[in-house]
Amino acid sequence: MSLERNKIKVLVVGCGNMGTSHAMAYHQLAGFEICGIVSRGDSKVVLNEKLGGDYPLFSDFETALNETVPDAVCISTYPDTHESFAVKAMEQGCHVFIEKPLADSLEAAQRVADAAKKYGKKLLVGYILRYHPSWTRFIELSQELGKPLVMRMNLNQQSQGAKWKVHQNLMKSLSPIVDCGVHYIDVMCQMTRSKPVQVSAIGARLSNDIPEDNYNYGQLQIRFEDGSVGWYESGWGPMMSETAFFIKDVVGPKGAVSILAKQASAAGKSDVIDAHTKTESIKVHYADLDQEGKFSRADEWIDLNDEPDHLELCKREQRHFLRAILEDLDLTEPTQDALNSLRVAFASDESVRTGNVVKLT
Question: What's the pTM value of the predicted model, to 2 decimals?
Fold first, then answer.
């Protein structure tokens, strides 16, 4: 640790949406000190100006790592660089915060997890919904519905301009149901607390502007050991519909719980990152019937007072990262959860490409 100022020196790698948000969080949190910003293009200059223009800039990761000697590295680059950057950082004694997905293959993700164990470093994967009090409440309420659960979730993004370019670049490494799907697979696993046993998926390539071997629309279906089932749908691009692009609800024997987010569901907001985590209110429907077979309990609306914006969520993530480092928190379980959700996501990808149902062992 940087003993002179008692702060964690962090090297920020990647300056896109998430990298910028994490850098803003580090810049504003007392426990961190940014020691450098890394990107191949001009995005680091733009970010540095937002932060006051005082941070050292680098175009090469290893050069930055060697010159700044950080305590921690924040990796928000495209997934095909995650493994090499994370392992190199941990080899040089750094803790690592890494944006989801952990890597661009399950084998690579496992190697990153193994490196954290080998070098005794903290590895925290950016599952931002885990720090959102409304999503925590959504998961808790779903666990009161009985079993089995039926979980329905999607996040389609009608993107254009710079955001479509970001999506095109992401699809050089992964499909939408892998890149975004890991969030919602993780949520489903928390809701059921059951083992995923089978996955099937479909996909379609709706644009010639993406790699020939990839697809920009996908939908996956998961079956769990306890009989619960869930589906997740994700599509990116200028052709995507904004009708019913934001669905987050869970059905069980005792009723249903739904996130209703008017702001997130508004037309023109499907590719706005700050809207993706908005909940605004949760609707709880009770299945209880009276002697006449009519509903005996009115639906309940839970309006959520603690509704953090995207930057505040990133701050909460980074506060947890700071605690993990300073208090030596055991991150083995969340790392295993990240590997598990990625395993299901890649199995879904396999199902799209082969047309087969994939059994999970």
Answer: 0.89
